[in-house]
Amino acid sequence: MTPQPPASSPQPLSSIFMRLIEFWLNHGSEFLSAILRHLALVAASVGVAVVIGVPLGVLAYRRPRLGSPLIGLANVVQTIPSLAMFGFLIPIPLIGGLGAKAALIVLILYALLPVMRTTVSGLKGIDPSIREAGLAMGMTDWQLLSQVELPLARPAILAGVRVATVVGVGTATIAGVIGAGGLGEYILRGLSSVDSIVILAGAVPAAVLALIADFALGWLEKWSEPGRQRNRRLQTGAVVLAGIAALALLIGGLLWSERSQGRIVVGSKNFTEQVILGEIMAQLIERSTSLKVQRRLNLGDTLVCETAMRAGDLDLYVEYTGTALTAIFKQPVILNSDEVKARVAASYAATGRTMLPPLGFNNTYVILVRGDDARRLGLRTISDVAKYTPGWRVGFGAAFLDREDGYRGLVSAYGLRFAETPRAMDLSLTYLALAERQVDVISGDATNGLIAKLDLFALEDDRHYFPPYHAVPVIRTETLNRHPELKIIFDRLAGVITNQEMQQMNYEADVERRDVSAIARGFFERHPQSHQPITSPQ
Amino acid sequence: MRQPVGTWLNGIVDDQSSSPPAIEFDGVTYRHPNGPLVLDDFSLAIGRGDTLALVGRSGMGKTTILKLINRLLLPNSGLVKVEGRTTSSWDAIHLRRRIGYVLQEVGLFPHMSIARNVAVVPHLEGWPQEQITRRVDELLNLVGLDPAVFRSRYPRELSGGQRQRVGVARALAVDPPILLMDEPFGSLDPLTRAEMHQEFHRIQSQVRKTIVCVTHDMGEAFALGTKLGVLAKGRLAALAPPAEIIHSDDPEVKVFLDALPKVEIRENTKQTK
Known about the structure:
The complex is a heterodimer of chains A (538) and B (273).
Chain A: H1 13-26, H2 28-62, H3 64-79, H4 82-89, H5 100-124, H6 128-136, H7 141-174, H8 184-192, H9 196-223, H10 232-256, E1 263-267, H11 272-288, E2 292-296, H12 302-310, E3 316-320, H13 321-328, H14 337-350, E4 353-355, E5 365-370, H15 371-377, H16 382-385, E6 394-397, H17 398-402, H18 404-414, E7 423-425, H19 427-435, E8 441-445, H20 450-453, E9 456-459, E10 471-476, H21 477-482, H22 485-492, H23 499-510, H24 516-526
Parallel strand pairs in A: 1-2, 6-7, 6-8
Antiparallel strand pairs in A: 3-10, 4-10, 5-8, 5-9
Chain B: H1 5-14, E1 23-31, E2 37-46, E3 51-55, H2 62-69, E4 77-82, E5 85-86, H3 92-97, E6 99-102, H4 114-118, H5 120-124, H6 129-142, H7 147-150, H8 160-171, E7 178-182, H9 190-207, E8 210-215, H10 218-224, E9 227-232, E10 235-240, H11 242-245, H12 251-258, H13 262-272
Helix pairs in contact in B: 6-8
């Protein structure tokens, strides 16, 4: 399903700035650790890229027949969009998966090319007579490299490191989609709740980091120009050793920080409702069992969660039956919700997962009208509205307009006609546009928090045009067998969350900007029976 | 020493009993990879302590001859011997550290101070630091550069002539018995060059090396060499002391002689007599 954001109206710059400061102050330690983690990801990946890339560059320079394909390969890697690369790596064992390890791999791959290429061009740029002088003086290959060629290529190599670092700061924000943490997490969180302040809270420091890195490395580059450095011999060895030690610490720290042995890894896709549900699942396990939970909320889309789960990097997340049927298992649309559940449950069972009991609500598409129109005209179903629509204006999200099972099917199923061709609108704006009478009918998501808030009315899909999208927790069967108590606690949650309650929680997150863990705590306060501690069968 | 070229050469090459010449070429052929034939059955012997000035047009293989001596190149056929051993039987690194090399473009390392540049080979040889420092000062004094002023400067802070002097100091650092010079003063203005020629004689009178110096300038060859070789078509057209060369009627030699400014001939012939 798609995110269900509220609309945001333009604000004066100063107020944005104040709210940004406020956000950072309120999230002080979290913000600081996001910056540090971001820096650690970039520093570690660029560091490894230097350790690998410089020798590869030397090899490419000394043995062009070996080196050209290497550079070519690095070039190809560079052209892969980073989002695709993160997705591509998830199912790959050992190097892939979710979190810092996979993020490091991708960031290293991206940093390699600039480092390799500038190493080669730096070495190629050395005056041949200088190299010849070194040889004629009886330098061995290694002495020539370490005493003459590398020092002379250093400014060029540093330029490559600078490019790699600046690009890395940017790419690392995208690593948020695989749960690697860092500033990208704010950007994703902000995007999913259409909260520009949260987006800026991540994007602004990322941009500042990139600028600082650019400036600092530019200074280092100047400083290291031939003939500038003094007392170099003293430093080189110590610097290299310290650098490698720091690198090892950094990578070790990053990987240690997200070790997941014995923990249940709970994930979610990257929109508000998913994050809330992920947090509820996580708290449910923490409240009812002695198991430890690792949260990997706000991952990418359906595909990311699915591949991560198949790769064993994710134990549990909440999926929607209709999405699982069509997007994951590639089956045609079925309208009967029991049949959908049965098919999806069977497909999950066949692929090593267990579909747990549905949570209750159905986050399907809904056709919305204003509440006062519904009451005034006595509208209850989509069929009811057909006789009014020829005089009405309509606003649909672009995706809904394009989809075969969206607008076109809807119009033919109900014989709807409208006053004008539907406008493709930003999904986040349609709810407000409807409330403000710019349009009269919109498509929306059944659990959007704005429906109740703006007094909108969801018309009943009396001809059962929209497929069901019941929320179901899905867990790896292996994990479930290892911890059978999970079955008990998820059974207790069956059918507990209604559409109204989900709308309410979405509203708390999207409009009231309440913290997700507080929202989940609120949920358990309302439903004390669903999180009683159980005694472990062991 | 006043024999015609051929017999003089044969005399040396045949005479294996006494100590071997410092450098010897015997029937050497060298062809650039995928390129023209540079040396064709080339023979030459250079006695210890001699200064051989080799003259030839650009592309005549002057630099090739130097690189064959320090094994930057190996001949396609024939033998190149240094101190009686073929270069292919020398360990290349060991051989090169016994041969000082002053390059055409000087080739100072721009990222190293003057002192560090001069100290490159002593460093490679693992000399103790105090000995290196002493030697660097000694060499800078020898080439007429005040160590206190120049020690910690960088090559780009020096004039062309000063860089040449550093190049010579660097080549002499571990006191190698052989010194190769490739157009060492080619890029200098005439006055500086004349000054460097005098410096060259002063230094050579102190260090007494076997020197091979290649140049395209007959005047410079006269100024520097105790023997002159004229290269043409991959062979030696003439090899003799300057005083003999000046009277040669070999057409290849005459081309070079005719190119000499008259004034310089008179001065230089006086000098060599």
